[in-house]
Amino acid sequence: MDDSASATSPDLMGHVDACLADSGLLQNRYFHRLMSGEMSLSTFHRSQQQFYFAVNYFSRPMAALVMRIPRGNDRLGILENMVEEHGDFRSDRFHEATFRQFLKALGGSGERPEAGSMQPPVHAFNATLMSACLSEEVSTGIACLGIIEYAFADISSLIGTATLERGWLSSDELVHYKLHKEIDKQHAADFFDLIQPAWQAGHGKQQISQGLRLGAYAFDSLYRNLIDG
Questions:
Q1: φ and ψ of 94, to 5 deg
Q2: Where are the alpha helices (DSSP H) in 24-119?
Q3: Vertex 20, ends 61 and 86: CA angle to 5°?
Q4: SS3 (DSSP) at 203
Q5: How far is 227 from 164, CA to CA, in rounded Å?
Q6: What's the CA gap between 58 and 133, in Å, rounded?
Q7: Do 126 and 54 touch, CB atoms closer than 8 A?
Q8: Nearest 5 degrees, angle CA 169-CA 5-CA 20?
């Protein structure tokens, strides 16, 4: 566990880890096939083209959450995350732009995938996140996005290791995943810090737990279906 995330609250982080383990996300068939060498480069590239739509969308549920958080100070961590998603206001560093660079290095054109090519697994994932952030308790939406950020740091490390081992990319071409490996545990901590008071007080545990499990389930379902979509 990352030290910055564990500083949030040992009890809360223990529950985050339990929810992530229960989901089986990091052991699902997508990562098993990728790490074992069963997944071909063409399959990996096609699946990552679909994942582009999740990358490009992720800041929008965050924006929905910001709108619903009443205290300005509580919005700052998520706002900083959104600015970072948008390359600190530099369009060439937008996360969707660095991800297109990654896709180009895998053999793609580097152009934005056509919106009509998005398949149901990614559409369902994006819709789940937006619904959680707009319609559920605010703490549920925060927990949902937080566990996705938390897991994506480890996923980024796993994908980076696999692509290097397969010889598909060089380290310099892993710009998107290298960045997320480094920053996403801190982004997760920013989310978890917001829900820590309610968790410790006890009155928000059910909503927080539901958000954690929903986020882990949605992320696991996305990856399981990326290779079949």
A1: -50, 145
A2: 29-36, 41-57, 59-68, 72-85, 95-105
A3: 30
A4: coil
A5: 20
A6: 11
A7: yes
A8: 70
- Helix, strand, coil tally for the chain in percent (to 5): 80, 0, 15
| CATH numbers and ranges of domains, the chain | 3-226 (1.20.910.10)
Closest CA to 124 of 6, 16, 224: 224
Asked if 226 and 118 count as a contact pair (C-beta separation under 8 A), the reply is: no
pLDDT confidence bin for 6, thresholds 50/70/90: very low
Residue 176 CB-half CA count within 13 A: 26
Calpha distance 172→158 (Å, rounded): 16
Asked if pLDDT for residue 5 goes beyond 50, the answer is: no
- Rounded Cα gap, residues 83 and 59, in angstroms: 9
| Distance between CA atoms of residues 91 and 56, nearest Å | 13
Listing DSSP states for 105-119 in one string gives HTTS--SPPPGGG--
Q: Is the dihedral of CA 72, 74, 78, 83 positive or negative?
A: positive
Give the H or E element holding residue 175. helix 175-201
Give the tens place of pLDDT for each residue, 130-146: 999 999 999 999 999 99
Question: Scanning the structure block, which residue is given the tokens 């660095």?
Answer: 98
| Highest-pLDDT range among 111-120, 121-130, 148-157 | 121-130
| Phi and psi, residue 18, nearest 5° | -65, -45
Q: How far apart are CA 74 and CA 100, in angstroms?
A: 32
